[in-house]
Design goal:
Bound molecules: 2'-monophosphoadenosine-5'-diphosphate
Helix content: 25-40%
Number of helices: 9
Structural class: alpha/beta
Oligomer: single chain
Order of helices and strands: EHEHEEHEEHEHEHEEEHEHH
Number of strands: 12
Radius of gyration: 18 Å
Length: about 280
């Protein structure tokens, strides 16, 4: 890649840095599409987010992905936030449009498209485990696709509040899974992240359902292994990340994203330890 006077700069703001495969994924996509653009990671602590956004505006960064812990705090710093991101309550993408910084959310599309690799969603009964930001995006996306949604969380009160706000039909504790209708199961809790643990017992996973795990490290979490052993179909968190990133690329460039190239770069970055 040759960086020159007209190279467009994109990036991701997060804190701490070092746990992102986004630069690998997006730079591979830029190369495959022949775009004169580069994507870098910016480690920005919360106290400096406002300065970072002002800097992005001044420097004309074309697109800034927003990751943990900035997805909510960035909202008041932008010129415009689309309706979907407002509903979810989080912005993961800031795109420069005619000099204005426009916030949107592609996390929900990533979750929905990852599931749609295995199943249509309209009319399906979906269960979302967790009640944080990833759960909000998943619930929004599943509702937008016409699924019937239940939210189960360790702290049931958080599940109830989320369900009420985003129009899910049921809510309860994680232990309610065996009594909850479930064709599609989405884990958004952090259980299983770099540990051999699952948020639910294997026996509670319905045979024949589709299971998506937001956790992508390790690629084959305990939840996904249990799901396969029960005859369920497993979708790794890699697809959620790759497909939300693909949608960011589409927003900025209007190009059809090279999904397989991005997925391969995501895997290679994990194997080389460039980012987890
Ligand atoms: P994010 O915004 O990334 O989704 P978050 O807001 O920190 O993350 O939410 C983490 C989720 O993982 C929560 O639903 C949390 O449950 P609580 O609301 O009860 O805290 C869930 N979680 C974290 N550790 C867990 C554990 N050991 N067992 C079950 N759920 C857990």
């Amino acid at each position: 890649m040759r960086i020159g006077a007209h190279t467009a700069t994109c990036g991701i703001v997060l804190h701490p840095a070092g746990h992102t495969r986004s630069p690998a994924m997006h730079n591979a996509a830029f190369a495959a599409l022949g775009l004169d653009a580069v994507y870098v990671a910016f480690d920005v602590p919360p106290a400096r987010l406002a300065e970072a956004v002002a800097g992005a505006r001044a420097l004309g960064l074309r697109q800034l992905a927003v990751s943990i812990p900035h997805k909510e705090a960035v909202i008041p710093l932008l010129d415009e936030v689309d309706e979907t991101a407002r509903r979810i309550g989080a912005v993961n993408t800031v795109t420069l449009r005619d000099g204005r910084l426009v916030g949107s959310n592609t996390d929900w599309i990533g979750a929905v498209r990852a599931l749609e690799r295995e199943t249509p969603l309209a009319g399906r009964r979906a269960v979302v485990l967790g009640a944080g930001g990833a759960a909000r995006a998943a619930v929004y996306g599943l509702r937008a696709r016409g699924a019937h949604v239940s939210v189960l969380n360790r702290t049931a009160a958080r599940a109830e509040a989320l369900a009420k706000e985003l129009g899910a039909e049921r809510a309860g504790p994680l232990a309610a899974l065996p009594d909850t209708p479930c064709d599609v199961l989405v884990n958004t809790t952090s259980v299983g992240l770099r540990e051999d643990a699952s948020p639910v017992p294997a026996g509670a996973i319905p045979a024949g359902c589709v299971v998506l795990d937001a956790v992508y490290d390790p690629p084959h979490t305990r939840l996904l292994r249990d799901a396969e052993a029960r005859g369920a179909r497993a979708v790794g968190g890699k697809w959620w990340l790759v497909l939300q990133g693909a949608e960011q690329l589409r927003l900025w460039t209007g190009c059809e994203p090279p999904i397989e190239v991005m997925a391969a770069a995501f895997d290679a970055a994990g194997a080389s330890g460039a980012g987890r």
